[in-house]
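pipeline stage [seq->struct] | target=VWFA domain-containing protein | organism=Drosophila willistoni | residues=1209
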Amino acid sequence: MFDSCEKLMTHFAVILTAFVVLLLLLPPPHGSGTSILVDASAADEAVRKWATTFGDELFELAQKITKSQEIRAKYVENNAVVELKDGNKLIKSITANVAKMLVRKTEAVRCIQQKAEQVHKSVQFNWSWKATEEDFSFYSSKYSKYKGNSTEKWPQLGVNHTTMYREMDLNPDTHFYNQAVNTNYSSVHVPSNVWDRAPKVMKTIDWSEKLDEVFRQNYQSDPALSWQYFGSDTGILRHYPASQWIDMRENPDDADTYDCRKRSWYIETATCSKDIVILLDHSGSMTGFRNHVAKFTIRSILDTFSNNDFFTIFRYSADVDDIIPCFTNALVQATPENIEVFNDAIANLPDPEGYANLTLAYEKAFQLLTRYYVTRGCNGTCNQAIMLVTDGVAGNTTEVFQKYNWGNGENGTSNMDVRIFTYLLGKEVTKVREIQWMACLNRGYYSHVQTLDEVHEEVLKYVDVIATPLVLQKKEHPPTWTHAFTDKTYDPKKTSERRPRLMIAVGVPAFNNFDSIENGTNTRARLLGVAGTDIPVDDVDKLTLPYKLGVNGYSFVVSNNGYVLLHPDLRPIGNNGKMNPNYNSIDFTEVEHLFEDTAPREPGQSILNIRNALVRHEAMNFKDVSVKFHYDKMRRVSEEKQDYFLAPLPKTPFTLGIAMPSEYGKTWIKVADIVTKQMHNKVDIRDFFLGDNWKIHPEWVYCKYHYLEGHEFDTPEAELREFLDKMVKRDWKWSEQYAEDETDWDSKEELNCGRKTLGDDAYYCNKELVNLLILDAKVTNSSYGEWKFENEQERRLFESFGAHLRFVATMSGLTRWQFIYGEVEVDTDREFGDYHTTAIDETWYKSAILQHHADRTESFVYSVKHYNDPLEESDLKVTASHAIFHREDTKEAPGNVVGFQFSHAKMWERFFNITAQDHCNKCMPICTDDDVDCVVIDNNAYIVIGQNINTTGKFFGEIHGDVMTVMVEKEIFQSIDVYDYQQQCKEDPPAPDSGHNLLHPIRLLSLGWKWLIAELFWQYQRIQWWVDGAPFMEYTDEIEDEYVAVGDSNAGSAGKPKEDSDDDDALFQEPEEEPTYKPCDMRSTLYALQPAKLLAFNDYIEAPSTRPFLVKKIPNSNLLLVVVNVLMPTRNIRLTTEPQRILEYSQEFPCYKLNMSFYERRRLEDCYTKHKDEELYTYCGNASRLNLSLYLMPLTIILMFYLTRCFMR
């Protein structure tokens, strides 16, 4: 008996202990003490009923109109297979595709280079007859006529232009962006500063015409080739196919300044990467015209730099100062943005003063270069140079050179082999031998610049000097790849293209094999020129298998400097419609938004690790990286996990990467050869594509003819139909664009410059994508026949919401749509399929996939257009979408997104009908009362329904900032800061003086005087042209000049006389200034719903100085119903999701970006900086040429400069 009681007590103790433990494990009470187990208030229950009723009606409508269950079942019927995606295998497949294409382009350029060297070496010239106007002629891009017109007026040379410039026969070609071209021959562009009848120029034009043969062969074997060209060291550019030059000058009277020798593909091929320190003499003697020429010289030098170069500028007098104070003791990358910053700083320097301490300037320059020489482990492999711009030197600087450049490593000396380039300015100069000696003994070049006209040619001479070791080694012709640039024919103001036309270029150097040492005479080892071709970045993008990366996955390409060439968030064109000047130097850290990045310009270690792997050309992967995934023009955001896979593109400085969602991005629907299967089953695949209410992704390649010319189609759908007709025939064969494996081309002994040419009707297809497309078409086809209502109740449901259109979009890029009541003609003649063509790239597609991933229910995503976006039709529509995932065993993969559109006005009306019902015996106002504001918002807090219809599409925080703030505090919404580092902000012009608009007598005199000086100078220039342009004039350099020097920018082939009357009308007019834009950083604070947090709230949410509100999730949707008591007082808070300029940086632009200069970079390979025979070919310049014009030039220039400057003040 006692034992039984003892056992009973033991059991009771165990039960009691378990109960206590259970109580301890329960979650703590929420907030102000209300437990989540407490029943909801009557008001909360009433709002829940409104939300449930509204949500149930929407869900019923959505399921019936989309037939989502029916389409889901079709995947099972067609035996669709869910397959895991291996990111490592996928990145290897993509890089192999891209590499084959890039190899073919490189091989084409090598063929041009090889042909150029062969022709130049073998051709025999007889210039006694070639120099006559009757025999010398060529296709000129600027002066040859097409349909009776040339792009520039013929220069008045006193020659017969009819025979000199051949007339061109051109036709628009789809492949070349509908430019009028001729693929049978090339044409020649000659810049303004080069005279096209100078002997060397005529010689180059003549022999280079034989390159047409290899141009044609390249194009016929690879019709995907873009522009091919050969840039000569004389400045002429032969480009294929022939076309008229696209004039991008705003003022047609300006000189044509395009010079191939200053393009990045030419400079980088010739000089590799460089570290340059420019020393600007800022002493008292550098005033007036010399100071003007010095600034122009530096601007011209900076124009030759590219993203692979690093530089800085010191000004020196008694002391040595950095031009940009925050760039102290640092070389900065020569991005367009940094170059512009230095140009602006130089233009605004104070007047020169004091004496010049050149030794101190050299010391500082060498110390800076030494630091980079050591940290980069150069050991003789870096191109380093000092460029001195001065009007004279006061003393001997031998000790500096002995310490840094000529040392043997003892007593603190070094042998850095820094090249010295000296630019001596002005006519009256002293100690010429001293400054010439600096260049000659330090592997440099000496230039004596006396006029502005000479600056351009004198600056370019350093290129040949730095290229000397490359030329002397003779054997290797290393290809060089540029960063992105815009195509010369692209004009954002005249195109309808969705994205700017970005290009990369590959260049290969051609050597002048004529040069040798004969009879003890030194000749130059010089470039013959650079052969190159452009590669559209879009061509790379199309090979990255976007359909296989899937929704919310993407590819990107990053250079050795960490700059993006390809990325979905790269936006070369700003909101102002202008090209971002820094579009080709946007860093990877500026477009990838990781969740760890909580402050602007302070990237976390994770993003830096990914960037460093890209820069180092490494094959790596990074899993489960938390990112701020933004979309819809940076208005919506979600915290997501992504996997990154990286792989180098062989034989290039680029690394390719792919990013895929960590969960749903690991699977896809794989399909077999459905074309062959349907043929065996005697099914006509064309029946899946009947009618016109369907589209395919316009930027994806399904099937295409190699030659676009002659195979033009009005739409991508018409093109697909043609290939579907071919596929149903028994002789159908699949063909790839680049079938053979050429990635190991270096092992070939000879180039294949005679590759088999393709027939006019040759084509290629993406077999995998086409089969997937046909499966999707089959799965969705039967559900998109003629619409029939099941019963009258269904019809009334549709009419109550004004549902009129349904659609489906698939992973293969197919979009179908159907009008429930038949197609209705609209004024714009555009309908759903014309606005939404990109399937998985549409906002509603992305949102549906994200909703499925977050909610795991059969919910639909509802959205309206943003308040600032234009209407697609006359009345506002609501778009609903839902993701269908095909499930197989434990795996599921996104298959498609179904959706529909309906009337916003009908939805608004139905909502307020539902919320006008009292469910709690007047415990709270209904939504039609003035006491409350009932608002339906989406998962990013944009208003879908509001009592004030004008708030539709606005951010909820703009209307109820206090409520939105509390919802963030209660973690119902998460606020996420997203940074935009690619913006251009409009700068306010300086406020004018009160008398600015009055034409003061002094100002009138100033304007008249400037006109007189300009007119005198123009007449002088016309005289100078006849002096400089005359063919019989010779220059007196002791060392043969490698470039043709003409007078000024209006001389020679580009001479375009200006009418005297041009200035008359504008003499006293003050032109309206163009708005100026400066780079700026912006922050957008966006919001993402946290649905799980809503479960904790069952009554009014109250907070100090905030109106009480109720919030309930509308079931089976992304919507929230928020009911705000508007009778209560509130704090005046207005939130916004619009981008706001970041102003809290401790430093101004560009200093707050300085840390980017210290990010990891990878130096270019295959750089030739030294050669043992270089001394045998040394040519370091001599006194500048003198000609008749110089006797008149100084007085005119000095008068104009000083007097104009005085009146400008």
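stage status: PASS
auto-comment: The mean pLDDT is 84. The two ends are 117 Å apart (CA to CA).
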